[in-house]
Amino acid sequence: MKTHFALTICLTLLSGFLTSVRAQTELAKPAPELRKLDYFAGTWRAEGEVKPGPMGPGGKFTGTNRVHWMGGGFFLVTHSEFQGAMGKGTETAYMGYDSDDKMYTYDSFSTLGEADHAKGNLDGDTWTWQSEVKMGPQTMKGRLTLKMLSATVYSFKFETSTDGTTWNTLLQGQDTKK
Predict the structure, then answer these.
(1) DSSP type of residue 151
(2) Cα 15 → chain centroid
(3) How far apart are CA 30 and CA 72, in angstroms?
(4) How far apart are the C-alpha atoms of 140 and 94, rounded to whole Å?
(5) CA 122 to chain centre
């Protein structure tokens, strides 16, 4: 009788353990909020202007952004090529969604040695991304605003601030879907 009771307890514990392991190993599903990033999928032509300031003397720039979903549907990947006021280079960026913080994520890395990590949200037709930007010895707040003007055009503006209230535009422009 003791053996039967011990075996029943062991089987019950094993069953609970296996159920827990099975639940943890089920494939995660992309958050429904990620579908809002579909807008950016495709190939875009960027044109804009860098303002004179900490990024250099300023001037016009152009670029091409090729944007596609990574397998699994958790991240939108952008491969960019640009040339102009900041030189010539490439950048790779990943956009996703953090379900815990209920914020969109943006992480980019460029051949100019820049790495950007931002959190963002969508309000109507406007995306706003906030980050910290290091310019020389100073750390500043960064804000990228994208306004969807149509299904194939959005404007963008990148600003910095030392106090989070007064913002200075560093670059602005427009992307057009090809």
Answers:
(1) S
(2) 41
(3) 8
(4) 22
(5) 12
Question: Any residues with CB less than 8 A from the CB of 110 and at least 6 apart, and which?
Answer: 89, 90, 91, 92
What are the residue ranges of helices labelled H in 48-141? none
17 or 77, higher pLDDT: 77
Report the C-alpha gap between 16 and 9 in whole angstroms: 11
Number of residues written out for the chain: 178
Q: Which two tokens stand for residue 177?
A: 């879907």
What is the phi/psi pair of residue 15, to 5°? Answer: -60, -45
What is the mean predicted confidence (pLDDT) over 36-44? 98
Report the alpha-carbon angle 159-156-50, nearest 5.
Answer: 60
- The model's pLDDT over 5-33, given as tens digits with 9 standing for 90+, comes to 544 454 454 455 545 545 555 789 999 99
Q: Which residue in 97, 108, 42 sits closest to 72, CA to CA?
A: 97
Separate counts of helices (H) and strands (E) for the chain: 1, 10
CA distance 119 to 3: 57
